[in-house]
Design goal:
Elements: E1 30-38, E2 57-63, E3 70-72, H1 78-82, H2 93-110, E4 118-121, E5 139-142, H3 146-153, E6 159-160, H4 166-174, E7 179-185, H5 194-204, E8 205-216, H6 218-223, E9 236-237, H7 240-248, E10 252-260, E11 266-273, H8 282-293, H9 299-303, H10 305-325, E12 330-333, H11 337-346, E13 356-357, E14 375-376, H12 380-384, E15 388-391, H13 397-403, E16 413-416, E17 422-424
Parallel strand pairs: 4-5, 4-7, 5-6, 7-8, 12-13, 12-15, 13-14, 15-16
Antiparallel strand pairs: 1-2, 2-3, 3-9, 8-11, 10-11, 16-17
Helix pairs in contact: 4-5
């Protein structure tokens, strides 16, 4: 059988081999986009670290021309990124509401109750699992960042400080803890050992249990030029086509899929054992067919992406340069991981942004990686009264625009950088 098209077993996929696909093991030969050298996007610096040497790694994205998984090579081990983490989910009110609605939905749909067991992988600070407690559903969080896990425990959510994989799944099953529902929200992209991770979920899943995964949809990334969602902490970027290939390797099937507005456009997939009695929704085949029709199984779709990214960089820099030439004051809003990809790739430092602000106290007094932009509490905006706010977490632009609409009282406008530069006048926003 031709080596290009032959299937490689899970055991033969060695993700440590640079230049090979982490899903199917094929040699990686095609570029998706090269964003240059960049520091880790969540490595916010203390003041005493600003004058020290900072580690930069290639942010070059490749695509497998056999299974079409878009991916970064593993330059940094997950333990170096996620053991202590700066991201706390609870600081986004819209994300909390998203989680609350999800929990109510799955409790009703799958009849979860005190006899059930729910496990969330990468459970962060308990932002989601807390919503199962009023239903009396037993929960377990698995979170590798000790500082974030401690915040969950303070909410009475039992949390293991571990990286999830097949070994941990086998241990939990041995202890008599199979899961009726396994949740993985925006974690699959952060796993270099994809096959081990999915094998672990398949092992931990009860016979008729359900897995739900949420992840940004590759279709939206390509169509809306969301290149700033690419960073070292995200090893892979998924379409339903690649998810289907991945889970089938481990005896799982996709039986339903939903399109979400979160993170600029995401998918929520529902998985079960191939032998389970969950009927497959027509939405699954419809979306698979749609992805094939728009070219997500054609390599040219991927190799043409870089030109769009270059164009957006030039557009944003031209706008910011014009603002500064006219004497405008510009500050950032938010310090998300995606913002640091944007700032570093475009070379936007304190020559453009005086500072940025964030609702997360963990980041206050620190500096963004690479560009070293100081991060202040949100109140700094009212003190300085800038002419423009550059919204770095553009996926939350509606929430932020409502929260900060008062800045229009002094004529401040908001800049949304992705997919193209958009200027919002807060005075036009209905309360």
């Amino acid at each position: 059988m031709d080596a290009k098209t032959s299937e490689i077993s899970v055991a033969e996929v060695d993700v440590s081999r640079r230049g090979y696909c982490r899903l199917c093991g094929a040699r990686l030969e095609k570029n998706f986009v090269d964003l240059g050298m960049s520091p880790l996007c969540e490595s916010f610096l203390r003041g005493d670290q600003v004058d020290q040497m900072e580690a930069y790694f290639p942010l070059r994205v490749l695509v497998c021309d056999r299974c079409f998984l878009v991916q970064l090579q593993e330059y940094v081990k997950p333990a170096e990124i996620f053991t202590e983490y700066a991201y706390f989910s609870s600081y986004s009110s819209s994300w909390i509401e998203h989680a609350r609605q999800y929990c109510g939905s799955v409790v009703d749909r799958f009849g979860l109750g005190p006899q059930s067991r729910v496990v969330e992988v990468a459970s962060n600070d308990g932002y989601l699992l807390q919503h199962f407690l009023p239903f009396g559903v037993p929960v377990l969080g698995i979170e590798p960042a000790a500082n974030v896990a401690e915040a969950a425990r303070r909410k009475n959510i039992p949390t293991l400080v571990e990286f999830f994989g097949l070994a941990l799944a086998r241990q939990l099953v041995k202890e008599g803890q199979p899961a009726d529902l396994i949740i993985g929200n925006n974690v699959l992209a952060q796993v270099p050992e994809l096959n081990d991770f999915v094998a672990g979920m398949a092992c931990l899943l009860a016979t008729n249990g359900v897995i739900t995964l949420e992840f940004p949809h590759l279709e939206r990334l390509i169509e809306e030029n969301q290149f700033d969602t690419i960073y070292h902490e995200h090893f892979s970027y998924f379409s339903l086509v690649t998810i289907d290939r991945l889970v089938r390797r481990h005896g799982l099937k996709v039986f339903d899929v939903e399109k979400l507005v979160t993170h600029g456009g995401s998918l929520r997939v529902y998985l079960c054992q191939q032998s389970a009695d969950h009927a497959t929704s027509p939405r699954v085949n419809a979306l698979l067919e749609h992805e094939r029709e728009i070219g997500l199984e054609e390599i040219g779709t991927y190799t043409s992406f870089a030109a769009k990214v270059h164009r957006t960089k030039r557009q944003l820099l031209s706008f910011l340069i014009e603002c500064k030439e006219q004497g405008a004051t510009i500050c950032g809003y938010g310090a998300p991981g995606k913002g640091n990809t944007l700032l570093n790739y475009c070379g936007i430092g304190t020559d453009f942004l005086d500072f940025t602000v964030d609702r997360n106290p963990y980041k206050h007094g620190r500096y963004t990686p690479g560009m070293h932009i100081p991060i202040y509490p949100v109140a700094a905006i009212d003190e300085v009264r800038p002419d423009y706010l550059l919204i770095l977490p553009w996926n939350l632009k509606s929430e932020i625009a409502q929260q900060m609409r008062h800045v229009g009282s002094w004529g401040c406008k908001m800049i949304v950088p992705i997919p193209n530069v958009e200027v919002i006048d807060p005075r036009d926003i209905a309360p």
